[in-house]
Amino acid sequence: MRATLMYAAGDVRTETVPDPTLERPTDAVVRITTSCICGSDLWPYASMPASDGPARMGHEFLGVVEEVGAEVTTVRPGDFVVAPFAYSDGTCALCREGLQTSCVYGGFWDEPGQQGGQAEAIRVPLADGTLAKLPGGTDTALAPSLLTLSDVFGTGYHAAVQGRVEPGKTVAVVGDGAVGLLAVASAKLLGAERIVLMGRHTTRTDLGVEFGATDVVAERGEEGIERVRELTGGEGAHVVLEAVGARPAYDQALGIVRPGGTISRVGVPQYEDAPVGFGSLFGPNVTLTGGPAPTRAYIETLLPHVLDGTVDPGKVFDRTVALDGVPDGYRAMADREALKVLVTP
Amino acid sequence: MRATLMYAAGDVRTETVPDPTLERPTDAVVRITTSCICGSDLWPYASMPASDGPARMGHEFLGVVEEVGAEVTTVRPGDFVVAPFAYSDGTCALCREGLQTSCVYGGFWDEPGQQGGQAEAIRVPLADGTLAKLPGGTDTALAPSLLTLSDVFGTGYHAAVQGRVEPGKTVAVVGDGAVGLLAVASAKLLGAERIVLMGRHTTRTDLGVEFGATDVVAERGEEGIERVRELTGGEGAHVVLEAVGARPAYDQALGIVRPGGTISRVGVPQYEDAPVGFGSLFGPNVTLTGGPAPTRAYIETLLPHVLDGTVDPGKVFDRTVALDGVPDGYRAMADREALKVLVTP
Questions:
Q1: Of the partner residues A94, A250, A269, the one whose CB lies closest to the CB of residue B259
Q2: Does the model's ipTM exceed the 0.85 cut?
Q3: Which of A222, A249, B165, B214 is the most exposed place for a label (fewest CB within 10 A)?
Q4: DSSP readout, B185-246?
Q5: Identical fold at B2-151+294-343 and B155-290?
Q6: A99: which chain B residues are within 8 Å (Cβ-Cβ)?
Q7: Per the database record, which ranges form the Enoyl reductase (ER) domain (chains A, B) (predicted)?
């Protein structure tokens, strides 16, 4: 079959690889109907050394179950399914608490031995815990929106849930990528009174306004901080949803959070150390939370909103490519030509 | 009157200073009946340069109101009162939300122009917001326990509240100082199922057990982390209350917190940067919270527990000195001879 491999920064290829097969009795093989390129794929695309490649790419997909192992009980061949960006057994203590990204038996698709979603098919480990059945058929016009349950919608929602967004709160969102925009939509779902979106790509922030942003701040750095403070009567936002992962986004968040407020991060941090002392988090009693979203935990919560059209998260996709077009899709996202690229094998 | 001044690290003196007077219509003058030395006073005692001195010391006191300014309405001369370690107006948006340490008009006793509690009397700014009336007279045997409402009990309680300790949770407390021990008592008040106290001074950890610790871990560093992990079935604690403020305590907390858990800090951080990235907080979805405790917010909640004897927080005091004995009190606490020193002017 055809699959996407990254050989090094900037070097993505569509190649022929062996078809996936069942390796364990808890596996399923899924024929992929829709997948996509993630903003987080751009981090290795910018910096991966050749020694780490070639790596199978893609961690978001919809598909049809083709074959299941002897121990799989919750999905059958023919089922239309969505997979979250982490696989998990669904039964360990952490899974039961809804933290599937820390599953004792689970992991991520980019780990050695795993396969990628930007491909024609994939072996899914721990299929019972990982896959969620979807209603309807693969021909649904909702496919792009359903695919966001894999990662970007669930990740934006995780930011808002961890930040304890609730009615009456002022929320600021740092980043106008797909996750930032769906963090806006999630903050609205949770009842935020005011949602300030920080981003400078008008086509993106326009979509953010459609998703529920009440204000847009295009300025960055000190100027952006000033602007958010002005908009919030000098106080700052109760909750800051940080959907970038770069260090300047962390500093931005520190600058605009209200005393006693929360910074909730879902952008994968590209830094390890950062200020947490009296002059940053501690003095004003600011809470820092977030992490990789256990999107598996949110599928059942968010699916009804997608099905009834309350939210149309599929709007974050502004380009579609076939598998052979994936390398150009990476380029287009890296060049900020495309917000998020859908892949239809 | 007599008051305590710190001239530099290791140099504390009891000296004669001018009597306090009303400076603003919102001030009160309080005759101090009981005060104490704080674990946080030991940070400047270890490192304050002479250029920062002489500084008036002490931020915890009980006393009797002697005089009030024209605009003070909630306390009258003769009232027995307790003051938190931060003064605040009690009416700004942040005070109304219970975050008096971030009061727009407030501040801390060690700021320029303010006076200290290790003295015979003190000028209290914003008396209406700052002072809390206490029942009974100054001769009460409960004075040491009431005094802990100024700081250490409220601070331990803040750690537990911010960490969202609740029934069924496993809590680990890093630090066996007065705040750590009262964080244990607070975790018990909030219903924690298991409370692991990390500390290596037996007389202190014994008091911790009396306050509710179910396990004591004397080991530190990697060994201490291993021990806590063993005690928690390999998982770590749901909530870690960090009551030290030194960087190794932060690292300890990272090592023993469960995925999805919370580190709540109330030890004043003696560092600014620390790990917060994928390998520390982000990957396991750990929340970092805490800060200077708005102890004013907790006085009404904790007072009944002190009055009815549910908790006897005054047990953290193991030595009493008069004002002239304060310099030796600092030495005794710094040498770990005394846990916490009561001062009776």
A1: A94
A2: yes
A3: A222
A4: HHHHHTT-SEEEEE---HHHHHHHHHHT-SEEE---HHHHHHHHHHHTTTS-EEEEEE-S-S
A5: no
A6: 259-260, 285
A7: 10-343
The residue among B115, B140, B105 whose CA lies nearest residue B58 is: B115
What is the residue-wise DSSP string for B86-104? Answer: EE--S-SHHHHTT-GGG-S
Q: Which CATH architecture group holds B155-290? A: 3-Layer(aba) Sandwich (3.40)
Chain A neighbors of B243, CB-CB under 8 A: none
The token duo for B293 is 């405790």
Task: Give A184-197 pLDDT, tens digit per residue.
Answer: 999 999 999 999 99
CB contact under 8 A, A276 and B279: no
The residue ranges of every structural domain in chain A are 2-151+294-343, 155-290
Of A254, A244, A52, give the one whose Cα is nearest residue A155: A244
How distant is the Cα of A86 from the closest Cα of chain B, in angstroms?
12
Question: Each residue of A75-133: pLDDT tens digit?
Answer: 999 999 999 999 999 999 999 999 999 999 999 998 889 999 999 999 999 999 999 99
* Residue range B2-151+294-343, CATH number: 3.90.180.10
Contact B181, B211 (CB under 8 A): yes
